[in-house]
Amino acid sequence: MHATQITPRDPAERVRDTLTRLGTERDLWLSTSHPTQGPHQVPLWFAWDGAALWMCTNATSATARNIREEPRVRLSLPDTTDVVLLQGTARLYPAADAPPEAAEAFTAKFAWDPRTEETPHVYLRVEPTTVRAWRGVPELRGRVIMRDGSWVGWSALVHEQS
């Protein structure tokens, strides 16, 4: 296996690239844990509203059960060469009680409306508190691009766009 030359991105570029991916990709891995059942990981569709990720699952799923017991979660986009890992606390919304703008955005993106399913579904909302992003070993340093809910390098990105 040959290593590819990677030019490390600055924090603003990493934030911009991550926001682009959150706004355009459709799949992620969600990891939850239960005090007695242990860890659980599932692939889910997601919609990004600019502040939080929205997913949906059956109300009786292991994912929903775990979040009721332990709401701290980890999420990852599926690309292992352009890594994006997120952490946050999940909040569950019964499908009928989901904020309309979130439910409608999810339906528009996936042409599926969980509110119309016969079996009860819940929306999961995760506002990231920590985000890590890197492309290979050269980007391991500086991989934390969000800390305590604030984007690292965000002021540089805002200044760059103005």
UniProtKB/TrEMBL annotation:
Q: Which GO terms describe its molecular function?
A: coenzyme F420 binding; oxidoreductase activity, acting on the CH-CH group of donors
UniProt cross-references to InterPro entries, sorted A to Z: F420H2_bilvrd_red/Heme_oxyg (IPR052019), Pyridox_Oxase_N (IPR011576), Split_barrel_FMN-bd (IPR012349)
Gene Ontology cellular-component annotations: cytosol
Key word Oxidoreductase present: yes
Keyword field: Oxidoreductase
Q: Please state every residue range assigned to the domain named Pyridoxamine 5'-phosphate oxidase N-terminal.
A: 28-134
Which Pfam families has this protein been placed in? Answer: PNPOx_N (PF01243)
- What is this protein identified as? Pyridoxamine 5'-phosphate oxidase
Species of provenance: Streptomyces griseoluteus
